[in-house]
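Write out the 3D structure for:
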Amino acid sequence: MLSIAICEDENYFSDHIRKLLDRYLKQKNMAASVRSYVRGEELLDADENPDIILMDIELPGINGMDIIGRLRKKGCSCQVIFITAYEKYVFQAFDVDAVHYLLKPVEEERFFSAMEKAVGRADLQGDRAILLMKQDLSTKVFIRDILYCEVFDHKIFIETICGRFSYIGTLGSLERQLSGDFFRCHRSYIVNMGHVMDWDGEVATMAGNGRIFVSRRKKQEFERRLLEVCRREGV
């Protein structure tokens, strides 16, 4: 399921973009997790790596162009559509590898065209893989096959459907490579929500019987994300 972020500080335009997005998703019979932000700093601080960002540029605080630049430096590979009233930033948009640059007011046809391109590019990343070491062998692991990740004593452990891998690193760095159904449910764990088999209100049981603790402050968001996955899969 796609994860989409809308970053727009004016309520009228935010509502308009959301309506256009809802019509696009309905027309394509596509499910997506959508979150809205008023300030770019909120997006920077969020515990997620959206697949697509619909970004205004003139925002209170740090402007949208700089926000995307910072996300790129953190390793975010999201697809970006700038939606703004100003033409002057159009060439800067190429520097941060934006998908499209739309001027307000946004027409449905142009919005749908931009979304088609963004979704297409996001789908191409759906088969992304990372190289992990196991017994001195380098193994290509598809990100979709990762069950969960944990950190212990500065070492990262990645549980996958084809075995367990480990390396020295940080969970934050790994988190920036993941997106979609991945959720950091605890300071020590990232889980693939598509592989959650059971949830008792405190502990999630994963495929393969791994048991992952969900922190109290992440519980509500965890349940929301789990419900979205269940609805998508018709559970």
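The mean pLDDT is 87.
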